[in-house]
């Protein structure tokens, strides 16, 4: 399966920690390594979570590397630099194992398309474990050079292990997005990637940057480097689904000017509070009911983020197939 800019809407997987919790329990949230701990302690559960999404119809699965970092593994798993680096690489291989199992179990399906594996590259703030990944408050505290250096090691490990592309995701500020894109254009000129922002409402990125201006900035950045073909999509994730339509309407001109698909993988719609945790699931509008509108606005890649599981992805896939037919 190749990445093409056409009318096909590609299904991404869902909230990895949500599906992983089916096998490891609910002790993921609050862990300083989040789901990344289980790459070391329960790798079979990681493989099974990937398989669940593939069996549900995901055409792209993301590696369980969102919160994987050299610093995090050194501090919380007591690994050294080399061991931490190899753990990130082996995490990518878990996705390969899942894909191989999926293909093997569907070998009689002559129409089966080979799912893609994208490396999940979460924001710098995720490893700080202080909530700043949702605010971008570190943008004025660390340099662009620091951001690039931190991301480079994990990106290099994922690329060495073998991925079809990179999901630069949950990025809370334009500064970090531009820094990572600059790194990719300079040092990994053949790598495909998408950039997905974390937004706080219907018009702004988490730190307050304009979403439409951020999207335009990234598109102009890759065009200036003559690497437009590397940018698979731009968009949003880890957001309340009710904000998506408004955000997509904000970038209608950018979508047309740059002929770029949008990527979206929102949360379930549940609300999180420190006192109650996640709640309100029964009040959430099913994600599949948003799909037609999002596709009309330019969504070429759709999946789920926090609190979405394989069943949600199955429903999204069924809705997309129904619209196609």
Automatic annotation (TrEMBL):
Q: In which pathway does it act?
A: Amino-acid biosynthesis; L-methionine biosynthesis via de novo pathway
Q: How is the cofactor bound?
A: Binds 1 zinc ion per subunit.
- Give start and end of each Hcy-binding domain: 1-320
Needed co-factor(s):
Zn(2+)
Instruction: Kindly state a single biological-process term from the GO annotations of this entry.
Output: methylation
Q: Which NCBIfam families match?
A: PRK09485.1 (NF007020)
Sorted keywords for this record are: Metal-binding, Methyltransferase, Transferase, Zinc
Tell me which PROSITE patterns the record gives.
Answer: HCY
Detail which positions bind Zn(2+): 238, 305-306
The record's SUPFAM superfamilies line, in alphabetical order, gives:
Homocysteine S-methyltransferase (SSF82282)
Q: Please name the GO terms that the record assigns under molecular function.
A: S-adenosylmethionine-homocysteine S-methyltransferase activity; zinc ion binding
Record-given protein name: Hcy-binding domain-containing protein
InterPro entries named in the record: BHMT-like (IPR017226), HCY_dom (IPR003726), HCY_dom_sf (IPR036589), Hcy_S-methyltransferase (IPR051486)
């Amino acid at each position: 399966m190749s990445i093409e800019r056409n009318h096909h809407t590609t299904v991404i997987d869902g909230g990895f920690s949500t599906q992983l919790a089916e096998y490891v329990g609910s002790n993921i949230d609050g862990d300083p390594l989040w789901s990344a701990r289980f790459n070391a302690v329960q790798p079979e559960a990681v493989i099974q979570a990937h398989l669940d999404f593939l069996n549900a119809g995901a055409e792209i699965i993301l590696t369980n590397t969102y919160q994987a970092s050299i610093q995090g593994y050194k501090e919380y798993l007591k690994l050294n630099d080399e061991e931490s680096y190899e753990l990130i690489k082996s995490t990518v291989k878990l996705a390969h194992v899942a894909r191989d199992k999926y293909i093997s179990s569907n070998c009689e399906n002559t129409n089966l398309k080979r799912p893609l594996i994208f490396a999940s590259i979460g924001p710098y703030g995720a490893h700080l474990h202080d909530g700043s990944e949702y605010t971008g408050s570190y943008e004025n505290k660390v340099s662009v050079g620091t951001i690039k250096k931190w991301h480079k090691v994990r990106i290099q490990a994922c690329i060495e292990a073998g991925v079809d592309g990179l999901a630069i995701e949950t990025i809370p500020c334009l500064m970090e997005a531009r820094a990572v894109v600059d790194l990719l254009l300079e040092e990994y000129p053949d790598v495909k990637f998408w950039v997905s922002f974390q937004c706080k409402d219907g018009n702004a990125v988490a730190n307050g940057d304009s979403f439409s201006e951020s999207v335009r900035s990234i598109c102009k950045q890759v065009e200036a480097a003559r690497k437009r073909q590397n940018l698979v999509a731009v968009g949003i994730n880890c957001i309340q689904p009710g904000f998506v339509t408004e955000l997509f309407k904000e970038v209608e001109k950018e979508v047309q000017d740059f002929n770029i698909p949008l990527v979206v993988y929102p949360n379930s719609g549940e609300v999180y509070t420190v006192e109650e945790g996640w709640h309100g699931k029964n009040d959430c509008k099913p994600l599949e009911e948003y799909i037609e509108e999002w596709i009309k606005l330019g969504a070429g890649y759709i999946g789920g983020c926090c609190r979405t599981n394989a069943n949600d992805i199955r429903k999204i896939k069924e809705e997309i197939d129904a619209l196609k037919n």
